Amino acid sequence: MSTCEIPVAPAIHPAVLRRHSPMAFEPGAEISDDALDTILDAGRLAPSAGNSQPWAFVVGRRGDAVHARIVRHLAGSSARWAPDASA
Hints:
By secondary structure, this protein is mainly alpha-helical.
């Protein structure tokens, strides 16, 4: 292949195409226990950069002490929008 040719990308999985990265959360919205379990399970199964599994997660729900502690440690760019997340 010459340096001017661009390879054709393989098909992109529909889940990747539907991916959404929010910059705001609905302050009154709540995530269900089932949805949170699904998200955490997907994270648990994700590979790490250094293959240092198993993963560990700290989960706080908006309004509890764990959430408040996590929010205090957010980077400035995330602190503007992430505190409204329900978990």
